[in-house]
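Structure tokens please, single chain.
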Amino acid sequence: MTGTSAFCHISEFNQAGYNQLHALAAVSKPLILWAPSGHFLLNAYANDKTPVDFEAFLRLLDKGFIRVVARADWFNEKLRRGKHLEAVKNRGYLGYSWAAGFDDEIVARLDRTRPGNNQHPVFSVAEEDGLPKAEARLAKDPGVVETLLSMESQWALPRGMLEQSRGSAGKDDNEFSRQVLRHARNHTRAWLDVGADHDLLPSPLAGVLWQLVDKEINHDVATRVESMLKIRRRSVDLDQLTEAVSFLARLGSRKPSGDFLGSADHDSAVKWFALAAEQADSLTLRDICHRLRSEIQRGMSPNDSRTRRSRHLSRLGKYASTPIVKVLEWVTDIKLGLVKLLWSRRKDVQKDFAYTSPYEGPQWPFRYLWSRKADDRDKRNMIRRIDGILRGDR
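Here you go.
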């Protein structure tokens, strides 16, 4: 994985995608979002699933961590409101709703002078060709309808795609199949248009999605990249990104601090995952755990003599004048096992005498979870959390 940019049709994850927006943004830069919905983002923030509210989203957009792409119609408020009313009437997809303070701010950042400028924070791409491609596929291969119905029953395609397709088609299975093929074609074509390194979908859905449009998309791919082999490797990169998101979700029992997003530590996290993926043939959840655990342990330097003894001793209050403390003040390497024997209040002493050794390991996991630099207790806590993931407890 030489690059870190990822294309994410976030609404295909439905609400779950927005609940994990902070994790998606933490492992890719930029995270290129297709037509994000203020409705779903607001739900995720209101239900305490993500620290990303409208203001934080726009800040990430301005700092280059997120880009927004869609077709021209998506940036049209009148058309969006019309689609939303139709969706409400038909109990369909609710992501078309227009959110004040979100959609208008995104439109204000749209590059209207150069459509398709994928280096701009907000840009549009060419109109879709999914419907004619879907109709041609159905005419050529009618048996694909049964395949798609089987996929629907097994949820073998992105949930958002299935719900949008079924909502548009009602009980008409042929129309449902036409809509699925349309969305599949549009998704893969959009990934090519935005120029992202990775197409972020949960494995194995991405492989299925590419298979659906493989015959139609091959010509487009061949004109844009060196070989189809390069495209096939996207599924490996996809797995790596998905495992990274899974790791962050398991690591934290609550949402990360909003201070992390858009910070230098956020940038460090993106680079850490990119480097880890480059150095592994196939980066798994266990690989991430072992690598990070090892780096934290190496950075802890538990026997480093440069400690802040005086600050810890000052916390002892009336005990600071006792003979044993006077002796310990001059000791450079305090053995906690000995302190336990000499002091009845062993828990307090363990806490107050704990070394704050210089730490040279990664700081981003601690910033991500607790919005602070790591102290000794945080390091031990982080290792326990990682061990819990390895055991399957988290």
